């Protein structure tokens, strides 16, 4: 039997993504978000949702761009810190010792030490209530060579990314392969 639960942000898992932007003075900043995902395949687009109160919010609007750096489990503490501290009051790159790199495709920085990077040009904003959804066209993807397969595609297990469980606030490593997309369900097709 199912039990009703009060509506909330309990969908899981959610990504642990670090959104990079430059502030008005050109200082690199990064914040961790969990509300985001791929939202369109043509143009290939990625969305992140931010509150107006965040320091990153206005930076994305002003620069028309952002990056998403996907951390590996090695950097769980740094990624968590990026969501706890405000770039308005501190330089998160200096505090963590991580390296901001200027994207050559968009006006935003990314985190050098993180294995996968998405470079996004802002194409639309949608006011949702407490959050604004930023929709960015992915104009570039960068990945560490050591996580690529023989076809040049990033492998999730080698990237060692992790996810967030909003219901209990756990970070979880991504586990075993349990099936194949567009293949496992074919047993139900006659």
From TrEMBL:
Q: Which Gene3D superfamilies does the record associate with it?
A: Electron Transport, Fmn-binding Protein, Chain A (2.30.110.10)
Residue ranges of the TM segments: none
Task: Kindly state which keywords UniProt assigns to this record, in alphabetical order.
Answer: Flavoprotein
User: What organism is the protein native to?
Assistant: Maridesulfovibrio hydrothermalis AM13 = DSM 14728
Classification via InterPro entries: Flavin_Rdtase-like_dom, Flavoredoxin, Split_barrel_FMN-bd
Encoding gene (name) = flr
Pfam hit, one = Flavin_Reduct
Q: Does the keyword Flavoprotein apply?
A: yes
Quote the protein name from its UniProt record: Flavoredoxin
């Amino acid at each position: 039997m199912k039990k009703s639960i009060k509506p909330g942000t309990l969908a899981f898992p959610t990504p642990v993504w670090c959104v990079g932007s430059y502030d008005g003075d050109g200082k690199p900043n990064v914040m961790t978000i969990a509300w985001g995902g791929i939202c369109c395949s043509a143009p290939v687009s990625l969305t992140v949702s931010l509150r107006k109160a965040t320091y990153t919010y206005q930076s994305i609007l002003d620069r028309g761009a952002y990056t998403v750096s996907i951390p590996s489990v090695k950097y769980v503490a740094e990624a968590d810190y990026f969501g706890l501290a405000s770039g308005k009051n501190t330089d998160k790159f200096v505090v963590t010792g991580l390296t901001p790199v200027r994207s050559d495709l968009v006006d935003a920085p990314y985190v050098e030490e993180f294995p996968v990077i998405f470079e996004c040009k802002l194409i639309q904003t949608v006011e949702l209530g407490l959050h604004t959804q930023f929709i960015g066209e992915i104009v570039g993807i960068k990945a560490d060579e050591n996580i690529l397969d023989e076809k040049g595609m990033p492998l999730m297990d080698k990237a060692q990314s992790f996810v967030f469980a909003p219901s209990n606030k756990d970070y979880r490593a991504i586990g075993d392969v349990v099936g194949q997309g567009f293949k496992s369900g074919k047993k139900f097709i006659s």
